[in-house]
Amino acid sequence: MGLENEEWIPDPYYRDRSAHIDEITTPFTDPLGDNIRFFVVPLTNGQIYLTDDGNTILDLTMQHPEYDYHELAQHYQNIASQHQLFLSADGVLGIVGTNKQVALLAGKMIQVIRKINELW
Q1: I need a labelling partner for 12 at 20 to 30 A (CA). Which of 23, 33, 39, 83 fits?
Q2: Is the distance from CB of 94 to CB of 88 less than 8 angstroms?
Q3: Cα–Cα distance measured from residue 95 to residue 105, given in angstroms and rounded to the nearest whole number
Q4: Residue 91 to residue 43: CA distance in whole angstroms
């Protein structure tokens, strides 16, 4: 599985394992009041990929259809890059690292999601 070092996940975080992907639900909320969540996908050689699966941008564009994602994409990309995350052309946030870095990677993912959410 993606998380071999799970002791970093304190309550009230929630972890769900299915289909070789770990889902992390944090106590932090988005503008819709939903808990921020992301996924941990195991790669090869002890590498993992954390992703929001596009949920951050999708939720914001659904909540505010008056804003064009493509017009704001560079701003989102700048926020992601400041924390070593990438933002794909279709709005998926992600970061790759090792199993041992999972707490650091999760912290970066949470920071970026919260900063993007604050724009709205």
Answers
A1: 83
A2: yes
A3: 7
A4: 21
Q: CA-to-CA distance for 103 and 89, rounded, in angstroms?
A: 26
Cα distance from N-terminal residue to C-terminal residue, the chain: 35
As given in the structure block, the two tokens for residue 7 are 């002791």
Three-class secondary structure assignment of the chain: CCCCCHHHCCCCCEEEEECCEEEEEEEEECCCCCEEEEEEEECCCCEEEEECCCHHHHHHHHHCCCCCHHHHHHHHHHHHHHCCCEECCCCCEEEEEEHHHHHHHHHHHHHHHHHHHHCC
**Helix pair angle (102-118, 69-82), 10° resolution:** 140
pLDDT for 19 equals 61
